[in-house]
Structure to design on (618 residues):
């Protein structure tokens, strides 16, 4: 699956993934009003508004980017209707030939991780019939439980040609509380130790020059990105934290390999709610999708100029 | 919420939680056959079989135990129908006055953790209406992202009188890969460092003599349980790994405080699939629910004799 993602990155000339993390407060009032008029103030209304918003956004930028990353929490909070909207979003993006990275951050003990892997990357068997539940191309995985929490996802990568990004160094302010702790035996940190594990796991699912096993490293920590880039040469890095969380184009440089590949940068709010920023205010609320397209083009240019100079 | 759980533990005289982690292979053929006859080999059939199985099990033991712990992965793998069965299981157990611990192991950056907390412990707002999505009493939380991934759950505990159990030392064989690593600065381990954080977080949501912020520590690691019991005196420990994973009654002793409280022990497969074990084979497949009841009674006795002697 990583070779498919690389192919799409090259075709679109954009190592960019748009995070589809819809908060109701991002969605233009016109859309939420219509949804509430139809469904009342209900979970169904929230889900309907999210799906309309996502489709309009995807229509506006699908030709520019290789991938999208829906954050499942933003759908899960609206219960069953929200998760239906997640599935419909995944399907819609797939129809537009976008690679879909499910940001699900699951991870559990062996048999339970296997169930999550079946749910999101593989298939489940009912009698002799194999069925899909959520069906993303990639998903994110939490490494706290160790190899037997991660390997079922790698098995699914191999069986169904899918990929994962393992959390290594997350973009949030308190990520260092645990991840930056220095280890006794080799003077490395927890995030480096996880990076070394990712590099081991990567070998279990190679797909061309890169592995289906990637890593998440926040744009907000470029120096750690540089270290981790070296530790995990075969792993693509999914880089959150660009834009709204503070990461800039220059911060992205260390996340790429010398082949110009090896990283894909996520922006969520900075794209999908661009119309709320001063810079794109001229698009107005009705122009939210065009504002998102403009923000994608600006992000692409920022990366071209600053990350590859 | 922890005071409610303690009250139920005392009333039932059983520090026991039954894990409702239904694998299709556990469910008697009669039930799955009926579900497939009605729905074909579909996600709906799997969900229907799970729900029938769960209800029969709960009917058989609800008077004996204070709590149940449905593992959401086992439902999520069957997509939307599976998650509907999760919600219906939660509702059914609530009607039986059981405390419900959603084993969801979620955890993300701040605003995203807030969405998960709303989904599972709190409410979401659509317009001026507050709605519930999954509505468990407790849920499990992954600490890898640090305080800003955990605090939104604690806020929900305080606002809605709920609780959480933070993963500290998990029961699986490879949990040590990361959790047992020794830290440089104070010669403690990663799991101890997380234990210290749990003890800090516990102070943010006290409810009587214990906190709504508990911890997960596997029965398979009793010596670590002893250390963690001291580090987190105000936190209840949810103890998985008893029974099928190898933990015994004697292993449970260090998890309890001198007040006889402070721990609740989970058994999943050992109860819900008891009829498949030699010991309970006399119940037969049709007697699966009675076998589960017998296994609960045996577990209760094992803990009384071996953990409190």
């Amino acid at each position: 699956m990583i070779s498919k993602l690389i192919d799409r990155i090259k075709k679109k000339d954009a190592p960019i993934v748009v995070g589809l993390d819809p908060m109701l407060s991002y969605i233009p009032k016109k859309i939420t009003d219509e949804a509430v008029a139809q469904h009342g103030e209900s979970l169904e209304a929230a889900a309907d508004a999210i799906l309309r918003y996502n489709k309009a956004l995807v229509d506006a930028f699908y030709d520019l980017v290789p991938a999208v990353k829906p954050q499942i929490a933003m759908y899960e909070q609206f219960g069953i209707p929200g998760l239906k909207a997640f599935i419909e979003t995944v399907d819609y993006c797939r129809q537009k030939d976008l690679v879909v990275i499910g940001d699900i951050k699951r991870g559990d003990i062996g048999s339970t991780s296997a169930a999550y892997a079946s749910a999101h990357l593989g298939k489940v068997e009912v009698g002799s019939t194999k069925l899909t539940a959520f069906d993303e191309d990639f998903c994110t995985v939490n490494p706290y439980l160790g190899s037997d929490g991660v390997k079922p996802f790698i098995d699914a990568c191999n069986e169904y040609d899918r990929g994962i990004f393992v959390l290594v160094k997350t973009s949030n302010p308190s990520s260092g509380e645990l991840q930056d702790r220095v280890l006794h035996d080799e003077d490395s940190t927890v995030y480096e130790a996880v990076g070394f594990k990712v590099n081991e796991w990567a070998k279990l699912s190679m797909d061309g020059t890169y592995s289906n096993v990637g890593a998440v490293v926040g744009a907000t920590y470029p120096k750690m990105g540089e270290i981790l880039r070296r530790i995990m040469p075969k792993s693509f890095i999914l880089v959150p934290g660009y834009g709204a969380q503070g990461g800039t184009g220059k911060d992205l440089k260390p996340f790429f390999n010398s082949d110009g590949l090896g990283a894909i940068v996520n922006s969520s709010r900075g794209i999908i709610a661009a119309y709320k920023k001063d810079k794109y205010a001229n698009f107005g609320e009705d122009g939210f999708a065009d504002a998102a397209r403009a923000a994608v083009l600006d992000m692409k240019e920022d990366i071209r100029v600053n990350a590859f100079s």
Remarks:
- The radius of gyration of chain B is 19 Å.
- The mean pLDDT of chain B is 96.
- Residues 2-307 of chain B form a domain with the TIM Barrel fold (CATH 3.20.20.70).
